[in-house]
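W.,

You were right to be curious about this one. When I first looked at the sequence I had no strong expectations either way, so I just let the prediction run and decided to look at it fresh. Below is the sequence, 121 residues in total, followed by the output.
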Amino acid sequence: MSRRFGSLPFWFLYPLWICICALLFAALQAVDVEDPSRRDDRILSREAGRIALRILRGRDADRFADYDVVNVAWARPREVAADPRWIVLLDRNPRTGLEEALVIELEPRGELIRIREVFRE
């Protein structure tokens, strides 16, 4: 004897669970909780990449015209230096295997700290 979904006991739990999840989602949206990816004290990683590329091309537009952002990472305090910073890796396109890559370090709000070559062992 087969049983249909509607005749199963507790069939109402599925729509009830959906309603509970929807209410929790709406309640969490109303709470002012900080999103760790969108902090007020620093720019976003995509913006850090754009700023670094603009700084590099501002130094020598012809030489760095074919450079692109390869990676952007947030370095916490004492991870790379005493202060937190954005670490932006830029390399030529097509990639040079880090032979001609540069690293630009930016303050949390996007100001230039320094431009350096990639550390090699």
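Here's what jumped out at me. Strands lie at 67-75, 85-92, 102-106, 112-117. And, maybe more interesting for your project: The longest helix spans residues 13-30.

Coffee later to discuss?

I.
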